[in-house]
Specification:
Strand order of the largest sheet: 6-5-4-7-11
Largest sheet: 5 strands, mixed
Helix content: 40-55%
Strand content: 15-25%
Order of helices and strands: HEHHEEEEEHEEEEHEHEEEHHHHEHHEH
Oligomer: single chain
Structural class: alpha/beta
């Protein structure tokens, strides 16, 4: 197969992300002549990356033309999200739609044990898929270097672990390793809420604080902690790294539950904390309100620093933004000078994070010719 041009790849990704389209629609969107678009599409059809499907009405005197689409049912991907206590794995098609899933408790945080457990999950999902898998994506909270090494994961207590290399010895399919927020941002960019927008930011809250940024349709490398230790109040509580009043000290589930547990003299889980806040408990209410206010200030800061006004709030702990919505809005408005950002709350389960890992694998491998998909 001849090497695909950059523009041919752009056409293929547009069809994958936005669905079946006619040549006329694609040519108009990209500002190309029909002849140029046809030239770009030809190698994609020859390679089986795109196919001609049912007729689409073009709007010109009722005429219709054959739509160009991907064959999303012919390809399979696996996404795996590692947490501190469980491994979440999903099987998806080419558009990251979840077809199957599996959740297992981690046997331990020992690297060898997790490598074995992930390999077993991949084998199980591959077997149930009744065919070879095109690629596997794995995501982890923390810093990932060069797609190879978990440089630092505070949740797994890993440092400088060559995880992709170790797992590749047990997994036959092409394997990709990424930060978990990168995966989730990719899923939102290609297949989720951010698909229709050239610019957006994602802030996640839960066990940690994550941040993803897309500008002009490009995922921007942000590092692991540009928002997690953003200063909110110089007189606020301390985080585990000794920062006073940062986002980690205010909005992580551990910080919030610890504050309420200490005040009540007993262990309080995150779900109970939110219920107490909803029912007017003064201590729980204040903790949740301060967290929501801090989250709003972080969203406003992201907009101020990047110019991106569309902010998605997510993560397993994002329900705090709905419990204390007024305080979230107040945080957004505090330094907004009359132009407050209005973030969108999108709760996501850990299976959605695993879908993000699959999306990272899809982005890393698409487009690829059908004949090359499973080449050794």
């Amino acid at each position: 197969m001849q090497e695909l041009s950059t523009l041919s790849r752009v056409v293929a990704v547009d069809v994958l992300v936005n669905g079946a389209q006619s040549r006329a629609q694609l040519a108009k969107k990209m500002g190309l002549s029909p002849a140029t678009l046809t030239r770009l599409v030809r190698p994609l059809l020859d390679a089986g990356i795109l196919v001609e499907s049912g007729a689409l009405r073009t709007g010109a005197r009722g005429r219709s033309s054959l739509a160009l689409d991907v064959v999303d049912g012919a390809r399979r991907f696996i996404g795996v999200k590692l947490t501190s206590d469980s491994i979440y794995a999903v099987l998806t098609n080419l558009r990251a739609e979840i077809l199957d899933s599996e959740v297992r408790k981690e046997p331990s945080l020992e690297v060898g044990d997790i490598v074995a457990a992930v390999a077993e999950q991949v084998d199980a999902l591959t077997l149930r898929a009744a065919g070879a898998v095109d690629a596997v994506g794995v995501t982890v909270g923390g810093r990932v270097d060069n797609g190879e090494t978990v440089a630092d994961s505070p949740f797994l207590h890993w440092h400088a672990v060559p995880f992709r290399t170790l797992l590749a010895e047990r997994v036959e399919a092409p394997l990709y390793l990424a930060n978990d927020v990168v995966g989730l941002t990719t899923a939102q960019q290609w297949f989720g809420y951010g698909r229709s927008y050239a610019d957006f930011a994602l802030i996640t809250v839960g066990a940690g604080v994550g941040y993803g940024l897309v500008i002009d349709h490009e995922l921007v490398a942000t590092g692991a902690t540009p928002v997690s230790h953003l200063a909110i109040d110089p007189y606020g509580p301390l985080c585990p790294r000794g920062h006073r009043g940062c986002m980690t000290a205010y909005v992580t589930s551990g910080a919030m539950t610890s504050a309420v547990s200490q005040g009540l003299g007993r262990r309080v889980g995150y779900d109970e904390l939110l219920r107490l806040a909803e029912h007017g408990h003064p201590l729980a209410g204040r903790v949740v309100q301060e967290a929501a206010h801090a989250l709003g200030r972080a969203a406003s800061a992201v907009t101020s620093l990047t110019g991106v006004e569309r902010i998605i709030l997510s993560g397993e702990g994002v329900a705090l933004a709905e419990v204390a919505a007024a305080h979230l809005r107040a945080g957004c408005q505090e330094y907004a000078d009359g132009h407050a950002v209005q973030p969108v709350v999108r709760p996501m389960t850990f299976l959605e994070w695993a879908r993000g890992a699959a999306a990272a694998a899809i982005k890393a491998t698409f487009p690829v010719a059908v004949t090359e998909r499973r080449a050794p």
